[in-house]
Specification:
There is one protein chain. This protein is an all-alpha fold. It has one domain. Helix content is 65%, strand content 2%. It has a two-stranded antiparallel ribbon with strand order 1-2. Strand 1 and strand 2 form a beta hairpin.
C-alpha cells in the first residue's frame, strides 16, 4: 500500500479517499488525517535506517568480501534486518560466523527493534521529540506526551527484550552447543541478539538445534507475541497481549474499566485483542494436531516450527529438515495465514454479515463461568 502511495505521489496523482483508507489499514491508523504526510515519513525513515545500517555493516563485510560483494551483502543484510525478513547471503551457517562481531550484531538488533516499533510509533516519537526540544521540555515530560499506543509498545519492547535476554543467557550459559564456548560479554551479546531475533527477524548466530527446552519454549512465546502493531514484524503483536493482560487484571480486581497510564481502553479493543489471541491459538492447536499425526518429531520442536511459521519468523530448531511433504505444506499455510493476519483470515470466512441487528438488546441472563 505504501509503494502504491509512493507511485501516485511520484506521478503527481491525487490520493483518493479509498486509497487513504487502505493506507490507514496498512499502517494500523484509525485516523485518515495526515496519512499522506505519514507515508512520506515512513518511506524516508525506512530508506534512511536501511542505508545507515548498510554503511555500518560495510565496515565489516567490505574488508572480508571486497567492495562489490561487501556492499551488496551489507545492503541485503540491512534491508533483511529492518524488514524482519531473516534472509541472509552470508552462507549456510546464517549469522554464526559473526556471532561475536559487535558491529553486525548491534546494527541488526537496532534495525530489527526500530522496525518492530511500528510506523505510528516512529511518527509519534519524532513529533514529540521535535516539539519537546523546541519547548525545552525534560525527557520525562516528552515521554508523558507520547500516545498510549507508543507507551505500551515501548514498555512491552523493553520487558520482552529483558526477559528473552535473561532466559537465553541463564539456560544456555553452560550449554556447549550454544553459549558454552564464549566469554561472558559475548554470551550476553548473543543472548540479546536472539531475544530480538525471536521477535521476528529470524536470524541465528548459534545453532538452535542444541537449545535447551526452556530456552526453546520461551523463544516460541516471544515469536508468537512478535512486535508492535503496524510494524514490520509478525505475531499477535505486543499491544494485543498487553491489552488482554490489563483487561483480565481489571476484571480480577473488580474494576469496571480497563485503565492504563491514566487512559481508558474501550471494551471493543479488548474483545478484538482476545479474538486475535484465541484465533491464533486455535490455528496453532489444529495445525499441531496434524503435524503430530504426520511425524515422529518431538512435540516442542513442532510447536516451535509452527509458531515460527505463523509469526513469519523463519527460525528453526532443526525439525524442518526432518519433515515430510504434508508437514511442510502445513507450515506453508501457516506462513500465508501469518502474513495476512489472523483477523483477516477469520473475516475472509465470514461470507455475509449477520442478519441480526446488533442494536437489538435482549433480556440478560447469567451463565456460570470459571
Amino acid at each position: 500500500m505504501l509503494i502504491i502511495a509512493l507511485i501516485l505521489m511520484t506521478l503527481g496523482k491525487k490520493i483518493t479517499l479509498k486509497n487513504r483508507i487502505l493506507i490507514g489499514q496498512a499502517v494500523n491508523s484509525n485516523s485518515l488525517e495526515g496519512l499522506v504526510r505519514l507515508t512520506r515519513k515512513v518511506l524516508k525513515y525506512t530508506f534512511t535506517f536501511e542505508i545507515i545500517g548498510a554503511v555500518l555493516m560495510s565496515f565489516v563485510f567490505v574488508p572480508i568480501y571486497g567492495w562489490g560483494q561487501g556492499l551488496f551483502k551489507s545492503l541485503f543484510q540491512s534491508i533483511s534486518a529492518f524488514c524482519n525478513a531473516g534472509f541472509d547471503v552470508i552462507g549456510d551457517s546464517n549469522m554464526m560466523p559473526f556471532a561475536t562481531n559487535k558491529i553486525i550484531n548491534i546494527t541488526c538488533m537496532l534495525l530489527t527493534s526500530i522496525a518492530g516499533l511500528g510506523f505510528l510509533v516512529w511518527n509519534d516519537i519524532s513529533i514529540n521529540l521535535k516539539h519537546g526540544i523546541k519547548e525545552k521540555y525534560s525527557f520525562s515530560k516528552i515521554i508523558k506526551k507520547f500516545s498510549l499506543h507508543t507507551k505500551i509498545v515501548l514498555l512491552m519492547h523493553i520487558v520482552l527484550f529483558t526477559i528473552g535476554t535473561l532466559v537465553f543467557f541463564s539456560f544456555e550459559y553452560y550449554n556447549p552447543g550454544t553459549l558454552g564456548k564464549f566469554n561472558l560479554w559475548d554470551k550476553f551479546l548473543i543472548s540479546a541478539f536472539h531475544s530480538v531475533s525471536a521477535r521476528t527477524s529470524g536470524f541465528a548466530s548459534v545453532n538452535l538445534i542444541h537449545l535447551t527446552d526452556m530456552t526453546k519454549l520461551v523463544m516460541t512465546l516471544l515469536m508468537l507475541i512478535g512486535a508492535g502493531s503496524g510494524s514490520m514484524a509478525g505475531g499477535i503483536k505486543t499491544t494485543t497481549l498487553f491489552v488482554v493482560i490489563v483487561g483480565v487484571y481489571s476484571n480480577i480486581v473488580g474494576k469496571k474499566n480497563i485503565n492504563i497510564f491514566k487512559r481508558t481502553i474501550s471494551s471493543s479493543i479488548f474483545f478484538k485483542a482476545v479474538s486475535v489471541i484465541i484465533i491464533a491459538i486455535a490455528i496453532l492447536i489444529v495445525s499441531n494436531l496434524f503435524l503430530i499425526a504426520n511425524s515422529n518429531i518431538k512435540t516442542l520442536d513442532l510447536f516451535f516450527e509452527s509458531v515460527s511459521a505463523l509469526a513469519t519468523v523463519g527460525l528453526t530448531s532443526g525439525a524442518l529438515a526432518k519433515m515430510n511433504l504434508v508437514c511442510r505444506s502445513i507450515l506453508i499455510l501457516l506462513m500465508y495465514i501469518g502474513r495476512l493476519g489472523t483477523m483477516t483470515m477469520a473475516l475472509a470466512f465470514v461470507l455475509k454479515k449477520p442478519k441480526e441487528n446488533d442494536l437489538v438488546v435482549y433480556s440478560h441472563e447469567n451463565v456460570i463461568v470459571g
